[in-house]
Amino acid sequence: MQATYDFGLIGLGVMGRNFILNVADNGFKAFGYDLNTDQVAALKAEGNPDQVDATSDIVTFTQSLSLPRKIMLLVPAGKIVDQVIESLLPHLDKDDIIIDGGNSFFTDTDRREEYLKEKGIHFFGSGVSGGAKGARKGPSIMPGGNKEAYQHVKPIFEAVSTKYKGEPCVAYLGPKSAGNYVKMVHNGIEYSMMQLTSEIYDLLKKSVGLSNSELHEVYSTWNSGRLQSFLVEITAEIFTQKDTLTGGDLVDLILDKAKQKGTGKWTSQNAMDLGIPVPTIDMAVSMREISALKEERVLADQLYSRPTPLPISKAEMIAQAEQALYFSFIISYSQGLHQLADASREYGYELDMAVIAKIWRAGCIIRAGLLADIADAFTAKPDLANLLLSPAFVGKVQDTLPAVRSLVAYAAQSGIPVPGLASALSYFDAYTSSNLPLNLIQAQRDHFGSHTYERIDREGIFHTEWGDQ
After folding, report:
1. 183, 233, 322, 358: the active-site residue
2. pLDDT by residue (tens digit) across 386-421?
3. For residue 462, what are the domain limits?
4. pTM
5. Quick one: 92 and 21 in the same domain?
6. Which of 66, 163, 170, 375 lies deepest, with the highest CB count within 10 Å?
7. 286 lies in the same domain as 164
8. Same domain, yes or no, for 191 and 268?
9. How far apart are CA 317 and CA 311, in angstroms?
10. Are 208 and 146 members of one domain?
11. Is residue 183 flagged as an active site residue?
């Protein structure tokens, strides 16, 4: 069998099928593999037979690929990745390349890279964002790992990725599991932005009774301004979707229980391990968990009274909501990028925040007009510790604060939950406070546990026998 195919892909579900068709559309011959014969048939039916083919036979698959083999896995994270790798190994040659394009936990990527290195096989993780449509038309791709191995895949990834003003939204990010880590934090930011968008929707609906048609107009208008983003864009579209079963608005018929696949939780957990505060991401994860308690929430709603929303004009509410969403989007990016910068130092990723912001400008779920400004901020100061410290963002944030404070207070008085927005404001107030009440916590710790404390007036570590005067 002649090995003439440039690229192999394992996992021909919707995401995998769309990605491999994208590869084929961009002039590379691609060969797919899936144990599910229906998935194989679906790819063959849709693809150009001169550019793409597929099989359920692992030998046929591996022998069809030119050397070094470039094989991408788009399969669910976890044990199945290891199972696929083991099934491939007997059929690979030294210097072949395996790419994990799924949302694998970053430590799993490090483990697999070390394991395969001993066998002479290159392995790296590469985040792919944009959903099924993005995979077909152009995703944002976040590869990391062996830099030399990436060079073999680079022409393909640059061709299939989406473009922002002509620049491909893909870049080599760093060694080891840098690609999977960046994708994980991307998803944490995504959780946060989705939660914030939904809270603003809830406020607009419960406070001034905006109809779905009005909500569509509001979000559409916002998407034409500084809030331009994929999530605001699709939110506007959601409000116009009719239900094929009842003819009503579909959004009103969807159960308020949000599921999760784990990447947001991983972001939150790892931030705690690193000691980096990401409370708005944390709250977004917690709200999905609270949403799962539907039966308990219904019961609790019957036990407690709730205030009637305070009177406010539509114009005022819409104006404040726009400023609050803009502010909280900035905070979401600030927290996620802060975590990336610290992880880069901790894990030796050598991440460039400006490059990350650039490849997020198009193709991915968190793409937004704001990212061009964020890229500029980190280009101007590559070692910027936090986006809130960028002179370019001080004015953007400062101008929104009166509206944000007003809206959070309004929501609290009206009994409308906005935990994401409230956490974003509290994070900002804490991060920008030169004095916090943690001196009292240190005193408490020393009082009950002799944990010692530091002083503001002299160097050293101190302990007091509390109560002794």
Report:
1. 183
2. 999 999 999 999 999 999 999 999 999 999 999 999
3. 437-469
4. 0.94
5. yes
6. 170
7. no
8. yes
9. 10
10. no
11. yes
